[in-house]
Amino acid sequence: MKQLLDRIPSFFKNFYFLSTLFFVVWLAFVDSNDLFLQTQLSNKKAELEEARQFYQDKIMQVKNDQAALNHNPDLLEKMAREKYLMKKPNEDLFIVVREDR
Fold first, then answer.
1. Integer distance in angstroms from the first to the last C-alpha of the chain?
2. Rounded to 5 degrees, what are φ and ψ at 22?
């Protein structure tokens, strides 16, 4: 046993080295904010930032559509007729449904 302990360099027997090693292992694996949790949180943050960018793009698209509809009555009528199936009082509306075969 003594021979085995003599083979270990004195650097690894140093109190400060052992304390630092213990501290690093504690933070990396045992602490409530360990490396695994930090990795998961980082991935979740990336997903949320991606979703945020997606919704910001959608908001800009809706604002652009709104501005176009406010300034162009023909486009407003077209959208009302196509999307919401609105019609004028003296018109008949026929909806053709195509069946895929």
1. 83
2. -60, -45
